[in-house]
Amino acid sequence: MTIEDVRINITGMSCAACVSSVEKIILSQEGVQSVTVNLALSNAQLSFDSNNKNTIEDVIHSVNKGKYHAALVDNRKSKAKLSKADLRVQGIKTLTAIILAIPTLWLTMFASDLGEIGSFDLRLTLAMFATIPVYLWSGWSFHTSAWASLRHRSTNMDVLIHLGASVAFLWSILVTISSGIDGFPSVIENAEHVFFDGVVFIIGFVLIGNYLELSAKIKATDAIDSLMELRPNNARLVIDESRKDTDKKPVESIPINSLIKVLAGETIPLDGMIEGSKVSIDESTMTGESYPVRKSAGDEVLAGTIVLDGTVYIRTTKNYEDCLLNNIIELVERAQMDKAPIQRLVDQISEIFVPVVVVLAVLASIFWATIGAGLIDNPMNSNIELAVMVLVSTLIIACPCALGLATPTALVVGTGVGAKNGLLIKGIEALEISHKCDTLVLDKTGTITSGKPRVSHIEILEGEVKEILSLASALESESTHPLASAIHKSWSNVTSHRPTVEDIRTVAGMGLVGKLDDKVVAVGNRELIEDVGVVLTEDISKQLEKVSLKGVSLVLVSQGSRLIGWIELTDRVRRSSKVAVKKAKQMGFEVIMLTGDNQNSANSMAEKVGIENIIANVKPDQKADHIASLQQKGRVVAMLGDGINDAAALSQADVGLAMGAGSDIALDAADFVIVRDDLIDAVSSLDLGRATMRRIKTNLGWAFTYNLIGIPLAMGVLLPFTGMLLPPSFAAAAMSLSSVSVVANSLVLRWWSPIKE
After folding, report:
1. By three-state DSSP, how is residue 613 classified?
2. Hey, is 412 helix, strand or coil?
3. How many other β-carbons are positioned within 10 Å of the β-carbon of residue 751?
């Protein structure tokens, strides 16, 4: 079995019940392993056995047979362009319904007797002909979708609209025809009320609501669509590096390690490294950083960023599919397809919601046609007219659009605005848990600090500076730790000679050990140096203790049984770290620093940024255990690390936040990925998570409250006490308003902005 993940666009869905219907259709196809349908994005993500005799085209055909419209996603096309075409068609149908609603309302509600045409009432006949185009053309999609849904033994919002509009239309036509033809039952011949206005307003208001929803959904996906638009189709490939001759090639065909040329004002097409001149890059599209960043030879640049001044040559380090921009788009789209546990519950409710509403509507109409008629002064001419109005109003007001849109719209907007600001949320479950987090654990190196330490002092006990640096650099050649990079850089500034050290091995969390001229050589912390047999005198111990109080990182260097010196390294605290820690505390987080540094160095660093809780001397493989220990105490833990050394801890945490989206491990291990390496962005991502969850909860609260109030009103609960009954046109307006309100409430997130320093 070969499982393939496929995404298809699906239009024609209008509510949570449609989602359930489409999921049933797709799951019924042989070869489909799982499917997630998203109403807000109008698409489906499915896992498909590509070895099955059925093909993805068969799945698409089955969806189309269900009167929905499915097509494979073209990753190079913006969803907004496709949606805008649908929006134009929707707009024409909506405008037709609105224009015809005006004369229909006048003829039905306000016009006096206009005489007869033949033997038929002219006023009613004109109202009927004005209603027919709205019912048959503007509302055609509702009717076809309703019958398709019923054929698949499911129900959706369109079933309620179809039933409500059809009952009102049929009743009104019968009353109109009865004015010129004898033989109709007396209840119809004597009827005074028609609901042509209700038909046009039901369809018109629903179309207005759908139009506004679709428009809002296009706005909701603006962020991800703008990222998709950043991807250039072609790049200038240098075909002769000596002469710098170029040829335009599709970006998909350009391999790794190619040289490409980018002119001023153009978008960089692929991730790579700058060769040659310095250049300013606008990275705001990827990181939200508002100021241009100066780059020079050897610096990394990202696809989707813009060259501001001069021509630059870039050596590609990733192919088109693996570029960070593509990873971000895929990550955000995957997150937007997720369903919260609460949304799965909503889908289950929606599945039975429509049949229950139909039953309630029928029971209410029967009640007012029989028993209830004796309880009130009937505002209509007959009990049957009253029953028809109750039936139509109840069917229309109960459409579950708002329930279906409550979660996905907020998630789409939240993840989109996050991506626009370099904050990537990998899924709805991470959002839900982040809302509950009370503890924020921070790694030190590369998180609180810049992660780029430098050698600040070398203490020589034996030999010379270059001997200590050469030996340390030779051992550290097997390490990727930031301290190793700082030592290499310092060594290269002093000498080019380096001894050949054999049998180098890494001692996790302590340092490195090897052999030189049959002597054990080591570089690392005090514990490692003592483990290899070096005895530290009392005087040396006091010196080391004094140095550690300065808050520097200490790397001791030994040869044989002798300590020949040590290297002191300092790492710059990020400018925003103090503000970020303060903001995290204001949000209610208990902030803890988790570091492998000694206690004195950790205390010094923590004091600079305002952290009181410190866990020091922690080896990399012990970090996950400390997270688990906090969880056992009932804490809900968010952990922020660099995504490489902290992968296990990030996975153990309830919510893992990784700095540096370029790391594949970061993308895999973390729930939130911070594109711009900045602690304040990590706190911002948690703030965004909370803001998104607040919108989701508000949306669901409004959607459920609307139905709890609206359905009883339409059924006539207040009729015996107030004499008021909700007309079908008012029910349609309320239903449309509920859906638009949910989408509008989600769109408020578009104005969310990250925390500033």
Report:
1. strand
2. helix
3. 7
- pLDDT tens by residue, 274-320: 987 788 888 876 765 666 888 888 888 888 888 988 889 999 998 88
Closest by CA position to 659, among listed 640, 645, 646: 640
pTM equals 0.71
Q: 25 near 66, Cβ under 8 Å?
A: yes
CATH of domain 233-266+271-317: 2.70.150.10
Given 443, 571, 681, 687, the catalytic residue: 443
Residue corresponding to tokens 């002092």? 457
End-to-end CA distance of the chain: give it in Å, rounded.
52
What's the mean pLDDT in 219-231?
66
Q: Are 585 and 551 in contact (CB under 8 A)?
A: no
Q: How far apart are CA 440 and CA 649, in angstroms?
A: 12
Beta strands in 376-497 (DSSP E): 423-425, 439-443, 454-460
| Rounded (to 5) percent helix, strand, coil in the chain | 55, 20, 30
Domain made up of 454-570: CATH architecture: 3-Layer(aba) Sandwich (3.40)
Give the H/E segment covering residue 378.
Answer: none
Q: Helix H segments across 556-637?
A: 577-586, 599-609, 623-632
Do 573 and 449 form a contact (C-beta atoms < 8 A)?
A: yes
CA distance 454 to 571: 6
443 is catalytic: yes
Check whether 502 has a pLDDT greater than 60.
Answer: yes
pLDDT above 50 for 243: yes
Pinpoint the alpha helices (H) of 598-672. Answer: 599-609, 623-632, 647-652, 664-669
Q: What is the pLDDT of residue 226?
A: 67
Burial 342-379 (b: 16+ CB within 10 A, else e): ebeebbebbbebbeebbebbbebbebbbeebbeeeebe
Calculate the alpha carbon distances from 666 to 561, 646, 651, 657 in Å. Answer: 40, 9, 10, 8
CATH code for 423-449+574-687?
3.40.50.1000
- Provide the residue ranges of all domains of the chain, joining segments of one domain with +: 3-78, 233-266+271-317, 423-449+574-687, 454-570
Angle between helical axes of 341-369 and 679-715 (0-180°, round to 10)? 10
**CB-count exposure of residue 542 (10 Å: 0-12, 13-18, 19+):** exposed
Q: Is 29 helix (H, G, I), strand (E, B) or coil?
A: coil
d(CA 571, CA 483): 9
Amino acid at 231: R
With bands split at pLDDT 50, 70 and 90, how would you rate the model's confidence at 431?
Answer: confident
Cβ contact 699:742 at 8 Å? yes
**Which tokens is 498 given?**
């380096």
Q: Is the pLDDT of residue 221 over 70?
A: no
Contact yes or no for 166/131 (Cβ under 8 A): no
Distance, in Å, from the CA atom of 528 to the CA atom of 94, rounded to the nearest integer, reads: 76
**Helices and strands (H, E) in the chain, number of each type:** 27, 28
Domain 3-78 listed as CATH 3.20.20.30: no
